[in-house]
Amino acid sequence: QVQLVESGGGLVQPGGSLTLACAASGSITLYQYMGWYRQPPGKQLTMVATIANYGATNYADSVEGRFTISRDNRANMVYLQMNNLNADDTAVYYCKADHFARTCWGQGTQVTVSS
């Protein structure tokens, strides 16, 4: 099991950018997929983006073209670059490590998009 700690959340104006970081306590190469999920206020938790250990990425339609997920296996870090943010992006963002049935979650970081 790996511990995940998210950082980089905060308040940003519409149209702005923000980068989230997920620091893992162990090697993320042990997990086939790393990902970012989010839960807007009053809504269900949904997938934002995932990245496989070999680099393949998958994005939710709502963030395609605006968000970029990346991983640094040497540093055991996963990032989410978020551009052109809007109010619908307001949510608690969670980092996830996934390897078959083995799943680990971070504690979450709040992203608020507001003027």
In short:
Helix content is 0%, strand content 53%.
Describe the protein.
The protein is mostly beta strands. It is built from no helices and eleven strands. It has strands spanning 4-7, 10-12, 18-24, 33-39, 46-52, 57-59, 67-72, 77-82, 91-99, 102-105, 109-113. Strands 2, 4, 5, 6, 9, 10 and 11 form a seven-stranded mixed sheet that branches. Strand 4 and strand 5 form a beta hairpin. The radius of gyration is 13 Å and the shape is globular.
Give the helices and strands, then pairings.
Layout: E1 4-7, E2 10-12, E3 18-24, E4 33-39, E5 46-52, E6 57-59, E7 67-72, E8 77-82, E9 91-99, E10 102-105, E11 109-113
Parallel strand pairs: 2-11
Antiparallel strand pairs: 1-3, 3-8, 4-5, 4-9, 5-6, 7-8, 9-10, 9-11
Given helix and strand content, the structural type is mainly beta
Strand content: over 45%
Please report the number of helical segments: 0
Rg calculated over all Cα atoms: 13 Å
Q: How many strand elements?
A: 11
Ends distance? 39 Å
Largest sheet: 7 strands, mixed
Could you list the spans in which at least 5 consecutive residues all have pLDDT below 50? none
**Could you state the order of secondary-structure elements as H and E?**
EEEEEEEEEEE
Shape: globular
**Helix percent band:** under 10%
| Overall pLDDT score | 96
